[in-house]
């Protein structure tokens, strides 16, 4: 087989529908499919036309193939079943601002205030005095009785 015959055979395989995958054939038809969807034709109607021309795809398979081919093309895949027409950035509407949801705040509860402990101190000098002192056990016993 000569180089020219090989080249001709490979070109024939590349363009023949019999030996190519459904994805490869759909890739060739993508510009027409996208234009048809952008014109507002339902995805089911486009799928019918494809199946009439030898694709034999289910709706789920077709949507998956569209998604993957759009990703492959570098475009942002669309979750919707139809393609929205292109809108210029300045013509886009501003998103609606949502009002903040009110948060639940329990009613204030009355808190019993404890009597301040007169012997509380955070002064380092006072702490040094306490650490170095000997506790008066009788005074502590009297204070404990008063608290009960």
Strand content: under 5%
**Radius of gyration, Cα only, in angstroms?**
40 Å
> Biggest β-sheet, characterized?
none
Number of strands: 0
| Low-pLDDT segments, ≥5 res | none
- Oligomer, anyone? single chain
- How far apart lie the N and C ends? 110 Å
Count every helix, treating DSSP H or I runs of 4 or more residues as helices: 6
Task: List SSEs in N-to-C order.
Answer: HHHHHH
Percent helix among the residues?
A: 40-55%
Structural class: mainly alpha
Cα shape: elongated
On the 0 to 100 scale, the average pLDDT is 76
Plain-language structure description:
The chain has 148 residues and is an all-alpha fold. The chain has a domain at 21-85. The protein is built from 6 helices and no strands. The chain has helices at residues 3-15, 22-38, 43-52, 59-72, 124-132, 137-147. The N and C termini lie far apart (110 Å).
């Amino acid at each position: 087989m000569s180089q020219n015959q090989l080249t001709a055979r490979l070109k024939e395989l590349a363009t023949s529908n019999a030996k190519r995958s459904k994805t490869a054939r759909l890739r060739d038809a993508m510009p027409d499919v996208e234009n048809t969807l952008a014109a507002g034709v339902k995805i089911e109607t486009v799928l019918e036309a494809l199946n009439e021309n030898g694709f034999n795809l289910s709706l789920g398979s077709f949507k998956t193939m569209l998604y993957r081919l759009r990703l492959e093309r570098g475009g942002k895949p669309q979750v919707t079943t139809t393609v929205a027409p292109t809108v210029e950035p300045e013509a886009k509407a501003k998103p609606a601002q949502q009002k903040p949801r009110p948060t639940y705040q329990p009613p204030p509860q009355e808190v019993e205030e404890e009597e301040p402990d007169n012997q509380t101190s955070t002064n380092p000098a006072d702490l040094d005095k306490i650490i170095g002192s000997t506790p008066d056990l009788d005074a502590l016993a009297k204070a404990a009785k008063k608290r009960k």
